[in-house]
């Protein structure tokens, strides 16, 4: 949807081909994780406001909840982190609410239309992509195109289509994480709660079978709570286990939420691995074709990067098209821009995953030292406002991770940790 919004500024006609009927509101089969807790990071919120001016007001009118810095709480191993007063704002709401709002905005555009169909392949004319093959109830069809954006998610078949047409298949890197997470909804009595987003992480040094938990205030007077475990640990599979763990293993706010009536059943999901397809490294690639979103890189969802990464990929697409590139040559400039975003998100999430005892690598060069530095910085965020501000800018995807890898930040973290004992 975000790619279609960007394309609408440059194309006479934009056609969205999706096996789901995107005209319908609510959850949809194409997003099996849609019932789980989703975080809209400040970096993504800024991009949505840029693509859809007035997005905040429309989201609030449809039930989203404001999440300014003072309304967010963050814990590490039970210790509450310092609040950064001038941190960026964000919004809290369910995935269907946020996606539905984006869908409404995009489908109102006069040059955007949809086809409810299953994409089955691409059409090439020599070295140029000229269309998409699709299937509707067994009837094949072809949509001609000057430019194709592939956004089929983690299970993308673009690699196979390229290989079948004689092109090179991109290398896919994987990091096995075996994450199990569960989400439940609870009634919310407060119309304007004092805190709207609360996160509590357990570092790998803690002997806990729960990696972390979070809860957000969402639309329709509800709390949405999530907890996650790795490997054989599957916390919260039943309502009783979910409530007990929130009360016993996390700060008091979690017990207060768990004291409310649960709405519906606990929804579980398994995320086997993080994936990255390296389209940017291909020496041969057809013109008129790019890939975006989870089809390029999908990350451990506990870090909340998915929606924001998609928004930043759309920003890269806008920057690329703004230069009026020739569509008869491969979109290497786009993939170079996108690589910066993917590198940043991938390094942030995988470096944290490598600290998990069950993750076996691969470890990058210098990992032991970089891991030690990361632990110093993360520990310093508990009490030091300056370090916390820099750290928040990175994890919210507003700044590149290299902004943390400076002597000043590292020395500041060491001093803060020494003061804290």
N- to C-terminal separation? 49 Å
Radius of gyration: 22 Å
Count helical runs. Answer: 12
Q: Residue share in helices?
A: 25-40%
Walk across the major sheet and give the strand order: 4-3-12-13-14-11-15-17
How large is the share of residues in beta strands? 25-35%
Number of strands: 17
- Provide the residue-averaged pLDDT: 93
- Going by helix content, strand content and strand pairing, the class is alpha+beta
Major sheet characteristics: 8 strands, mixed
Q: How do the SSEs run, as a string of H and E?
A: HEHHEEEEHEEEEEHEEEEHHEEEHHHHH
What would the principal axes of the Cα set say about the shape? Answer: globular
Which regions have little confidence, pLDDT < 50, spanning 5+ residues?
none
Write a structural description.
The protein is an alpha+beta fold and 421 residues long. Helix content is 33%, strand content 25%. The protein contains twelve helices and 17 strands. The protein has helices at residues 2-7, 42-51, 55-61, 95-107, 158-164, 239-249, 252-258, 306-322, 332-353, 367-380, 385-395, 407-419, and strands at residues 14-18, 65-67, 72-76, 79-80, 90-92, 112-116, 118-125, 128-136, 139-144, 148-150, 172-187, 197-201, 212-218, 222-230, 262-277, 289-291, 297-298. The strands form five sheets. The chain has an eight-stranded mixed beta sheet with strand order 4-3-12-13-14-11-15-17, with helices on both faces. The mean pLDDT is 93.
């Amino acid at each position: 949807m975000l790619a279609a919004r960007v394309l609408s500024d440059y194309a006479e006609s934009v056609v969205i081909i999706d096996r789901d009927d995107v005209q319908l509101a609510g959850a949809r089969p194409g997003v099996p994780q849609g019932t789980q807790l989703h975080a809209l990071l400040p970096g993504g919120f800024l991009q949505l406001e840029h693509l859809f001016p007035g997005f905040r007001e429309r989201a609030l009118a449809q039930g989203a909840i404001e999440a300014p810095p003072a309304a967010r709480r963050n814990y590490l191993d039970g210790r509450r982190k310092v609040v950064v007063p001038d941190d960026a704002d964000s919004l809290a709401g369910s995935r269907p609410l946020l996606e539905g709002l984006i869908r409404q905005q995009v489908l109102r555009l006069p040059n955007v239309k949809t086809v409810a169909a299953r994409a089955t392949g691409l059409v090439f004319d020599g070295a140029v992509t000229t269309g998409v093959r699709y299937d509707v109830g067994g009837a094949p069809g072809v949509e001609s195109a000057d430019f194709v954006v592939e956004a089929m998610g983690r299970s993308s078949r673009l690699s196979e289509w390229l290989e079948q047409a004689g092109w090179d298949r991109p290398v896919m890197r994987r990091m096995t994480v075996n994450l199990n997470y569960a989400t439940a909804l609870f009634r919310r009595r407060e119309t304007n709660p004092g805190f709207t987003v609360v996160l509590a992480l357990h570092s790998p040094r803690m002997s806990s079978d729960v990696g972390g938990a979070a809860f957000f205030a969402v639309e329709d007077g509800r709390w949405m709570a999530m907890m996650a475990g790795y490997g054989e640990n599957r916390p919260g599979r039943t309502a009783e286990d979910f409530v007990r763990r929130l009360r016993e293993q996390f700060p008091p706010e979690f017990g207060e939420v768990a004291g409310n009536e649960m709405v519906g059943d606990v929804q579980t999901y398994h995320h086997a691995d993080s994936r990255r397809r390296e389209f940017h490294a291909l020496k041969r690639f057809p013109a008129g074709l790019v890939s975006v979103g989870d089809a390029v890189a999908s990350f451990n969802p506990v870090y909340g990067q998915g929606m924001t990464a998609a928004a930043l990929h759309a920003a890269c697409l806008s920057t690329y098209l703004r230069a009026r590139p020739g569509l008869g040559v491969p979109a290497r400039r786009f993939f170079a821009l996108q690589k910066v975003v993917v590198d940043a998100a991938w390094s942030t999430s995988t470096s944290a995953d490598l600290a998990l005892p069950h993750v076996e690598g691969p470890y990058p060069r210098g990992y032991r030292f970089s891991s030690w530095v990361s632990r110093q910085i993360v520990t310093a965020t508990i009490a030091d406002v300056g370090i916390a501000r820099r750290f928040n800018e990175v994890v919210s995807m507003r700044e590149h991770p290299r902004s943390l890898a400076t002597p000043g930040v590292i020395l500041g973290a060491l001093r803060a940790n020494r003061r804290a004992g």
